[in-house]
Structures
1.
Amino acid sequence: MWAFIHKLGSPKWFYGISAKLQPWFWAAAALLIVTGSLWGLAFAPADYQQGNSFRIIYVHVPAAFLAQSIFIAMAVSGLVFMVWKIKVADMAAAVMAPLGAAMTFVALFSGAVWGVPTWGTWWMWDARLTSMLILLFLYLGVIALRGAFTSRDSASRAASVLAMVGVINIPIIKYSVDWWYTLHQPASFTLTSRPAMPTEMWLPLVIMVLGFYCFFIALTLMRTRSEILRREANKHWVQELVAGQVVKVPAEEAR
Amino acid sequence: MTPKRKQKLFIILGLVSLAAIAVGLTLYALRANINLFFSPVQIAQGDAPMERQIRAGGMVKEGSVSRDPESLDVEFVVTDYVDDLEVYYSGILPDLFREGQGVVVVGELQADGRLYADKVLARHDENYMPPEVAQALEEAGYSPADYQAKAAEVGKRLDEEGVPQASEY
């Protein structure tokens, strides 16, 4: 167990294993997202009250799930980096932040577009919408902190601390609809009870959620790999790797 | 885990818990302000200010909507099943507005106890179902509250049995 974790912490080993894992996640993401969106947007039944605007759920919910999950992943990576000094964790946290911010934006935007036909307004300062906006600002804060320091180590520590403290916002987002009166309705999906919609509606949604998660994993693996190359550029193994490719390129051009 | 790492872990956990407590206390202190709207029972108890813009929310009471055929004026009762609040509104209602539907109304409470709304927003619940299922349930005589609870279950049964018969429920 510990040996595996230590291996995972080695950039070289991570670079190798992620190359093998990456195509599987890309393939799964493409398959699930294509299936889920076709099914959800074209074949799933419309809602009895909202009609076709209900289909925004197939983008809104996966994006909102991912926005929160990525923040948790970023905070856990931050903790691993701070306590165990594992650099790969910090690289992963660094590349996750922009995707998390993008997902938060997608969730807010699709929610606003959905709000106009259903609620009659695109924005309301209720607890769910406001806490989600704060999540977007936290992501932007983490990204900005990374750019604000000249020393990479200080930047990583500052960003990690903000991510770890900011994770407090996640349960607030999750339970905001239960704790306070909000315009946003409570969750349709819970771990303990059946989804509040029939199978032909929730199955494409589950497929979309899984597809979004695979996409996140694939993209994080890919971007962490380039981050590893960038930060370890002076290391022996990276130079060997690059040297190997440099020899190959002219040989290919010669043909 | 080395002692140094353990110490670091405890510092971080301590920091995060302190921040969580601080945020928790703040939210607890502000809980009345974080609520998006007053419920009719709070208004009946006099918690809401008069003649100032407030938001009130609840369900549109069944059979309470009366529209003026000559204009866009509409009156309805918002209820939380404990107390009722009469609402007067002139304007276009959202598509989802109907009796038994959740709404948030923005407006001023006047001395006559009515709320004069500038804006009516529809809330919707977390339940979704295809129109055929909703219709089948309604024909079978279920109220919205019942059929929302049964939506998932019946949706599954419709899948298995094909066309629904009202007598089956």
Note: Chain B has a mean pLDDT of 80.
2.
Amino acid sequence: MLIKFTGGTVYDPANGVNGEVRDIYARDGRIVAAPPPGTKIDQEYSLQGRTVMAGAIDPHSHIGGGKVTIGRMLLPEDHQGHEVARTDLTRSGCGHAVPSTMTTGYRYAEMGYTAAFEPAMLPANARQAHLEMGDTPMIDKGAFVMLGNDDFFLRSLAQKKDFSFIKDYIAFTMHAAQALAVKIVNPGGISAFKFNQRQLDLDERHQFYGLTPRDIILTLARGMKELGVPHPIHIHGCNLGVPGSMHSTLATIRAAEGLPLHLTHIQFHSYGTEGDMKFSSGAPQIAELLNQHSNVSIDIGQIMFGQTCTASGDSMRQYGNTKSADPKKWVVMDIECDNGCGVVPMTYRDKSYVNALQWAIGLELFLLVNDPWRIFLTTDHPNGAPFYYYPHLIRLLMDRTFRNEMLEKLHPGAQAATILKSLDREYSLYEIAIMTRAGPARSLGLRDRGHLGAGATADITVYEDLADREAMFKTPLFVFKNGELIVRNGQVVKVVAGATHVARPEYDRAIEKPLREYFERYHTVKLDNFRLSDQEIVDSNCGHTGGECGCVIVQPCGPRTS
Amino acid sequence: MTNWTQAKGPGDSPKSNAITDVACPFCGLVCDDLEMVRDETGLKVAKNGCEKAVAGFERKVDGARPQVDGRDVDIETAIRAATDLIRKSSLPLYGGLGTDVDGIRAVMALADKSGGVVDHALSEGQYRNFRVLQTTGWIMTTLTETRNRADVIIVVGSDIQKLHPRFFERIVNVEQSLLTETPAKRTVYFIGKGLDQSGVKGPRIGEVITLPCELERIDEVVSALAAEIKGTPVGADSVAGVPTADIRALSERCKASAYPVFVWAPPSLAFPNADLVVNTVSDLVKDLNVKGRAAGLALGGNEGAISAGAVCSWQSGYPLRVSFSSGKPDYDFTRYAIPKMLAGGEGDLLVWLASFTPDLGPPPASIPTIVLGTPGIKLNGTPAVYIPIGTPGVDHGGRIIRVDNVVSLPLRDLGRSSLPKAADVLAAIELAL
């Protein structure tokens, strides 16, 4: 099956294509070079005047796992009025802030996204996270496994185990939990909260293990690099949401000592303590430092106004945030000597000084960080806002007039406290394509995703070139997954499963012996039951037997050093 | 800190023909350290099985045949008959739901397509928790966290031993703790009279203290405890027959402890307005967390109830008691309680699924019933269609979510029978519909 996409205006930053009129060909689900003249074309889409990009990739979206389902259970009022009826093609569902799994898949695809990655998979909850992602159709998935608050890691570090032992443990966990990358949430802080510590700044010591977040971050950053895992350590830093958190963030960037880091939902960690309200923007200082540190990438975690639900592994900080819960109900959990979680509903208000400034801080960061290859477009769904606000966010970035109109509606104190009005930058379509496709794909090591060169998977989104960028990105004309048309005019026309991406760095199987003993002595699950097989993921995605449809895609790692 | 790398493996080596690390689906704890052997008489639990496990794994299921109106038929005929009934039904009620994750996924797909209602047989108990989750929330913990870190366990009005025979053995009376090589003895409190304490023994168990009130007056005792914890002392000398001094002593103990864990099992709290007890306990745990740490641990979740609640939540947004009759999920935990619907003459077909224990039979119903059940299931009369199905983790593989709503476990195919998976039968019906 050879498909020709004729005459679209193509934005493909991975291949340096910036708004050029090009023909694209796909054969059997992959993009191929132009065939020799006279080759029979089976199907042709005339795309003159339309904008063509690879399918979009969300590198940080809480779509699967226990805390998301706690959020769903916690908030029936979030779903009521947001029910979605079944159709001949699609299942019913519901949800505004925390949509049901099928609805999540459909909505992503209807917005031109063909992949989304769950950034906070607890090892103890990995099976369920994959089950939920398996029930999320249309898009590719993958997950970052959380390490650095688990007893085994902290204990190994405290006992000064050989670094290769720690790397073996990291790699084992990635294999066992079927992860694409590793995340650290409030380094050591989730564990410290179990010992009744209420904060843990970068150089504060965990009272039981005697370690600092700095030790933990550096170990994991170095571990990822030496294991050859493409995505650097994904860091949800210290002091989420705390006024003054900008100082921990600045110190973390400096602490990296050149090691690759990804700082996630950095907006929530960019607060100063200036002004009468003791809450100010740290965006200019953070952006300035980021511009000098090419080893650090970020995503924003932009907030939008309205009801949402925050769901995080950060039990320490989420407990702190419970005082802002709206509605006034919340869940905090200590989990399996492994991790924790906190689920706190939140309503961001444009007339609140703090919320309005949070909104502005996110946008300041977007506009002040120079290199779009190191900044990804996220709302930290659902923490800052549900993911389907992305088209609105894109318009805010691309349309200065619109942005300033929005700004003028906000709390006047917040307007005075932000430099946003002075920022003239408007993102180009090329930069948007970097932030939402090429950049995340490169950072996550998805070699055949996020671009339109020969060999790439034919995940393609076609938009009408509308002046209203929100309308443009909200309702793509066509979305193709593996070369199949799945969405037309923003409506699902075919339901597909989507693959699960994993990375499998090498490790010495000898680590399994002490781990098995450790599980026997202290845990309530056996090591071999903790481990997820490929078959479990393949089954839950599509029912095909292993290998038949490539449901688990192993992205290559670089060579392990030492 | 224990140096685990030098630690010896526990127990002796398994027998050569033993199947080890078997997960048990017969209660919400899903213990996964069972050892099974198979001989000419069938499957035997060789190690780490409680009475529920022995009853579940060793039960004979041979010879069961599908039936339509009480007559033996082949499975295709039974599936066809079930499909016809569901097609004709304007409001099928999908109840029981004693199954694993794949089973409940298949129920959801079928209920969505056929415009039915979904509700688990043990929802009444689960809703003592869900109502609190949906109104105030809570601070909870999990089994491994409790096993290693709890220093005081407070059992609230629940017969844990009966519901989860290995809870005290596996979670409370454990020799090792991650925190220290010489873990201190644990104090166990029971709030309520007549609760089975026979499992509370062994080297890690210190004091066992009972606050002996009638179960239906537990709300008074936990309210007094909550007041003491909040610093508003109770005036009376006793509350529901329990001396206030004892309640105060428990309050002081909780405040002085590193990690007191309040344990309850919602099915045990079978008295009116029991959710208020769960609510009060959740609130007092929150209050303890203002200065120190504490957590709740809700048990129960037998018969696949946790998987049913979780899968229904992630697929529909709501934890059971959902109707798909309008084409959209419609949630009302009072209106769509299947026992209440049956009593009120709502629904025109009951589809009952129970794959774990034969006790989970369908309730009496005046409407036609399709039963997908483990052989030997207790029936009320002759169902219109009966399809014997396998038990996940015995007759076929699967996955199940544990009581703490965090951990899920793979269930093994132990080859007891060739009975079909509920998920496959339901998928065949859905396809034919």
Note: Confidence is low (pLDDT under 50) at residues 1-15 of chain B.
3.
Amino acid sequence: MIALDFSTFLGRFHPLFVHLPIGFLILAILLEWYGNAKKIEKKSRLIPYAWFLGAISAFAAALCGWFLGETGLYEEDNLFVHRWLGVALVGVAFAGWWIKKKPENYSSLLQNGINVLLLLMMFVEGHKGGNLTHGDTYLTEYAPEPIQKILGANTGKDSLPPLGNPDSVVVYRDLILPIFESKCIGCHGSEVQRGGLDMGSVETFLEGGDGGPILASGNSIESELFRRITLPQRNIKFMPPTGDALTYDEIKTVEWWIDQGGSFEDRVSAVEVTENIKPVLLRRYGLDTEPKPWYEMVSIPPLDSLELVALQEHGFTVKSLGAENPLLDVKYSGNSLTQEQLGQLEKAKDHITWLSLAGTNVEDNWLAVVGNFSNLTRLQLEKTSISDKGVAHLSALEHLEALNLYGTNVTDSCLGDLQKLEGLKRVYLWGTRVDPDAAKNMEENNEDLEVVIGQG
Amino acid sequence: MCTHNENKNYTRRDFLTKTSLGMGALSMASMLDPMGVFAKEKPLVHTAMEGGGILGKPHFPAKVKRVIYLFQSGAPSQLDLFDHKPLLNKMNGQDLPDSVQQGQRLTGMSSGQASLPIAGSIFDFKQHGQSGAWMSDLMPHTAKIVDELCFIKSMYTEAINHDPAVTFLQTGSQLPGRPSIGSWVSYGLGSDNKNLPEFVVLVTKDKYGQPLYSRSWGNGFLPSQHQGVQFRAGKDPVLYLTNPPGIDGNSRREQLDHLQQLEKLNHRDVGDPEILARMAQYEMAFRMQTSVPEIMDTQDESDHIYKMYGEDSKKPGTFAANCILARRLAERDVKFIQLYHQGWDQHGNLPSAIKVQCRETDQATAALITDLKQRGMLEDTLVIWGGEFGRTNYSQGQLTPDNFGRDHHPKCFTIFMAGAGIKKGFTFGATDEFGYNVIQDPVHVHDFQATLMHLLGVDHERLTFKFQGRRYRLTDVHGHVVKDILA
């Protein structure tokens, strides 16, 4: 253990030594090329010295680097290349020194060849080393966009793809797996399985690692996975050992996932969203888990403004719901409505979410067109002569939440059609021929539905 | 005096400053976005489409399209109506402990009293409805609909006297001069019915006690067509609306057309925006000549509606009659309807005086909410009931077993709301056992205003008006939306 500690201690001199050969060797090559360019007959005597110093310091750097690599804190694949390329570089540097000592013995092709070779190796080696320490994206992260594109770098930075609605987001696939992919799977994937753990697939994930399962579903405290990511960072068992630790939000998300049963299929809408995870989901993923009305969840392109004006010209009052909401609140007042006029609304059938024809002369069969309004959530038909036949046209309106039929001619037989409206939450039947007891009955059979029948 | 900076005549210096900066800004903008120098959308079409409000569209979808604010002027005693404090009955007559009062200021009316005897309510409190909201037996009708209501028991204000407190609640500032809530709503969101004003005020007639100034529904520095229009009981609901004898509608129209041409010249000459405001008001008055009589003619209301709102509702000018009118205005899409009912200022003789107040308001309030509900109007209408501050837990003047009074108390009061966008059967916030200080979820007047604007689809921080060199808003630099009461 002490020996290991000591070698680690030595290993940490790697970053110190590693910059020396870069300087020495580049200096040597520049001196030589400077001489060539100036056509100076006698090569500078400094050149072999610089090569020698470069080779020696490269050796020291490689030795320290070897020890540092042994600590196991680096990603295996990249480390392998970096390590052996480094060793090769030491060899080339010594070879270069040998050649430069007696330049007259070797062809200028070999002379320049070894210069170019060494420079190339040094670039690659340096870059690999930098990536090992700082991560793959260190160099490109803040590069201007065109450069990022050329390099094919991930331009995402920290912004995550916007997620849809809670009922389309799978907790594991969309929230948890991306965390694991960025922080864990490099060492615990199908290619490298440190500690015998492969988090790349659900089956191997559940098997766990050499120490047994890492997930205790429903109990984050008992889960090895959660323990490892929340240990003090200096603990040797803390994960991930290098690179960025999991952020607070990521830890909280993982904790919530485990505590809610650690399901691999459940969607956000299927698990309990606890109060303390709500702000995390909103902040980190833009995922608003507060229940929202349908009209705030629809995302369609807004209606063309000329179409809007056309609807206005047909006598409708048309309002946008809000500055960033594409849906419309449409109203007609008066009693000179025609079926043709109402038909014009077809052009905005996906955009109309609130429609009021209250107090108009609308007739039953005209409502067929309204039955196509896929995003209609509120429909006001009060104080019209609509009867059960009109209501029958509405049964496809799956998002209709509130339907106002007060003061119309509907009777008990419309209740059947009302029950087909799955999304219906409130229906107003005051002043109709619907029997209060039948209405009460329907309300009792459907706990999400409020039937307002009024007084008198 | 003319203080609008739009009216300022440009000096040579102004011209140079503005144009040089302006040219720079213009060229900068075109460098950044070459298409930007040409207008993209047709904003005029939009504004006209959206009813003429300055915002064009709400900031976000509005849960509430219109508000009926039943303002109980004079400050009803929360301790005798909603905020049940049995400890006060237990300690009846004892001096209010300093630890409760914490040296907070009292009004000059009771600060000189030798003692501040705690006065428990003499009214019976019960829990009502499924929500179990506490209410005293003073309001039997409202008690029946508590499951529709959202009580805020932790309101507090900064003012301790009526006028500053009413002004504060209505305009966001204790000093007069700012636009009232209804004016901001009218300015921001515009009209849903061009035949009626966006902001209508109904004051219960023959109620006195504390002064109630029309500036509570004034437009402040906003263009004056946004001020509240008071509808009065009796022959002339809106003063000076009818044509003088011998003048018919046609000649009135002709007169207005010519006047408009003259005023346009005048406006081009001096640029005073108030000229436009006045023209808008003339035009509104002309349209109201037909729309107002239709509103005020309540003959088509059926008998059981009158029965529901109570006997009073047949007498024009009463609170109950105004409640029916409020509903009729709401049905015609008036955005902000404000009722005022004075007489809640019970410094003495509270037990008998508050009974009168409740008799005048309780049944009609409950009926209004029930009526709106059965018509489906609570879908997008919000009803607010409340005064400008609360009343003290100690008696002002002598405390006897059946008589006491309560002084002004800004540290806590209760309001309730019903309707769109807020939780039903819900009580928010709490006061201490003495009903003196708020101990949970305090709601400042500005928070209330911010929440009200939020419900109307307006971000209270983004509806501003530049006046005297800076931008003002209803909540000025304060106010947080009370998210916990939102449905």
Note: The longest strand of chain A covers residues 325-331.
4.
Amino acid sequence: MSLILFIEQMLNGLQFGVMLFLMAAGLTLIFGVMGLINLAHGSLYMIGAFAAAWVAGLTGSFVLALIAALAAAAAAGALVEVVVIRRLYARDHLDQVLATFALILMFSEGTRWVFGSFPLFLEIPPYLSGPVRLPGGIQYPLYRLAIIVAGLIVAAGLFALIARTRIGIQIRAGEADREMIGALGVNIAALYTVVFALGAALAGLAGALIGAIQSVQVGMGEPVLILAFVVIVIGGIGSIKGALVGALLVGLTDTMGRFLLPVAFAQVMAPAAATAVGSALASMAIYILMALVLIFRPRGLYGVA
Amino acid sequence: MIVRTLAMAGALSLAAVGAQAEIKVGMITTLSGGGAGLGIDVRDGFMLALEQSGRTDVTVVIEDDQQKPDIAVQLSDKMIQSEKVDVMTGIIWSNLAMAVVPGAVAQGKFYLSPNAGPSALAGQGCHPNYFNVAWQNDNLHEAAGAYANDAGYKNSFILAPNYPAGQDALTGYKRFFKGDLAGEIYTQLGQTDYAAEIAQIRASGADSVFFFLPGGMGISFLKQYADSGVGLPVVGPAFSFDQGILQAVGDAALGVVNTSQWSKDIDNPANVAFVASFQEKYGRLPSLYASQGFDTANLLLSALEVAEPSDADAFREALRAADFDSTRGDFAFGANHHPIQDIYVREVIKEGDIYTNKIIGVALKDHVDAYVGECKM
Amino acid sequence: MRAETLLNACVLLALAAVPLWAWVADEPFTITLATRLAILALAGVGLNLALGLGGLVSLGHAVFFGIGGYAMGVLASHAQSYTPLTDWPVLIEGTKSMPVIWLVAMGASGLAALAIGALSLRTSGVYFIMITLAFGQMFYYFAISWPAYGGEDGLSIYVRNGFPGLNTLDPIQFFALCYAILALALWAMARLMRSAFGLALVAARQNAARVEAVGIAPYRLRLVAFVLSGMITGLAGALFADLNRFVSPVMFSWQTSGEIIVFVILGGVARLYGPVVGAAVFVLLEHFLGGLSEFWHIWLGAVLLGVVLFARGGIIGLVVGREVRRD
């Protein structure tokens, strides 16, 4: 195995991790501030992708498509928060799980009702398509590099938002003591809606970015949702930093597992059997990672005890 | 879960009077969820043929299996116990077929498969009342292997999801491909990101790529592969280049070679009429699955002309004769009741704004599946 | 609680009466539907022990459901092909006998619950939900890619397994068997809720520190509850596989876990008959909403949402009032 291939796979893992971070950041933010576990986060990802595909089909502009994805997901998020989610903050996690499970059913079939049963088309814009040559002779798709950069910019922006701005201070205060900030005159209802819409917009952005290189179809959100939960549990629920570390860990573990495990098994068994066993184990790798982390750190890497 | 569309053969059904006994067909297919597109096409193709036949004594009970095996089994019980259907059809997925077909034929029902053709039902598990109107699962992959030889490929990189149909696909390709393998990868079922696999293809020194990734997996792979600039020729079975999903792949699919037993440009009167009437009725181009649904209905209708399902032996013989005008041209059943048919090589092209396929050759002529020898009946 | 007891009796009677009517009226599919309902209710009863009494929100109970199913599938497929499971160190043959299969199903899912519980119970709250989900996904992917027992295609068993003295292929007899098991499980649950163990378990949910103060370790209590819960759900899995004469990895999927939770909450958490009512409503909704529209999932979602938002004691709570306090 060459060094170039290894580095290319590390980049792939990084790109996957950055993508997961966009999903996980919203989830963990919503949990940290409102104490809400939101299974319907994957539906917001799907809404972002569908909105982007629809607008790109109408206008041909990828930038407009991204804006539409952000707007549609944020709007859907705000709407759901006001109509449904708001009633769930005081409930236990069980009610939240069930109610948001119900929302998944409604969003998925609703989307199929509006857009039909066949996947939609969304493509990489011409100025971001094709591979570029990196130092060392690595051929790497420009679009994936762009995703890495975009994801890191969003991460930096999110950290700055939380550390520096007024709303960030309110979010941190909300995480620390919900009643207190209410008593201090912060409009909690509005704050919650904004935080939920922000998380939704991040998920929508992830859906649109990924939609260009994957299939835009109903049900695309649930696999990503489960991965995002794995990420925030590993990182510690409520911690943005934990989400970033967890996302990169999961992204790298999954990619390198798929790549290296079959190779490793091929040292000791026949190639066909090695690929079968290796890929079976690779598909379980991140769940094993998560179980291990929780056994040694029951509240995740950066979770508060 | 039960989409209880008691669909009649067109509006004519109201006039259903006559001496003949009602024939009841139970169709269990996937009409909701991510895989609904395939089931809808099979249903539409089937109903179109029925409507064109003008027969008023055939009732079709259509139910949605949601792509879940336990639901499919439950619906099958319902079809047999409550609806008392004579013939069953409709299942898209091999795992659902394995759940339903053995039980249904054991209870004396006829089953006509419009899509799934698992090897177990073609070999040791074959049954006199089971007919596959589409293909044995390995067929299109075998044809891809044969095409790769013709195209002069010497070193293929092959990949498929890690589940039985995926393992069969790679086995089918290797059965006919004579060159070497640069690599063999099983991906995760439902995987959507193929960056790691594409990197390995790039590094492998292969001269061609064979893949079997049905549905959304294939869309994702093709988009990412095209963008990676690897540029090796790609071969695959028709499932990833079907009319329903090609529009979602876009330019990334252009020029890709795929193998299929049907194509909309097969030049015979039955097919020309089918493509035109399907387009007129439903406002979209028919897919592979639609053609299979259409052929399944026509096979059934041809047998009904000769015998009633209640006379099982005569009806079985009538089915076996396959005396209907298939959209594929020549059509005959082998000893295990699976098709003996030509498998074509197609290339993805763009007609105006629509992506579609055109035939560029024949990969296998009068192809018989590999399991016919294991079938004892 | 009198109203609830009356309701429970009615539910149990109705569940017996409808299939009997169907038997007389020769509507075998209704019996099949009722059997499915009884089996799903049994799975719910299993989860209710962990979730309702113990407060352990497990999003991984599909693991036990699936293990029970595969216990049946593996044993029966070996019996069907006359090949032993293993001939070393001791010869183990497959079997078509339901009681043996049930014991194996309960044993295997109990062991799995012991291992998963021992690890997962170190966490709590959302972490517990998520780690049980992770274990579910592990089993799911393993079942899909492990070729020996059919992988994603699953395993078909051509003839339903046997029970001494009964013809299990007759729908009404198989229903009677499942109904009897459900009734037995409900009776055991009722005893357990009143036992010292059940009371301690509820107390540990409400205030763990207080239970610890009287010298009971909540961890052990919960582990025992989790194992028992897994065993009941495993038994339901074996019956479900026998109903369909088929097993597949779908039984392990997280949607299955979600649906079992839905039964429990829909009916009413920690209510003895909650899972029965929940499963009944779910099966009926599936059956009748499905007839209304191809997009019936939207309406199913709306009903679920309505129950969560406006009927907090579940359907039983809605009917008899919220006497059991949830916290």
Note: The mean pLDDT of chain C is 88.
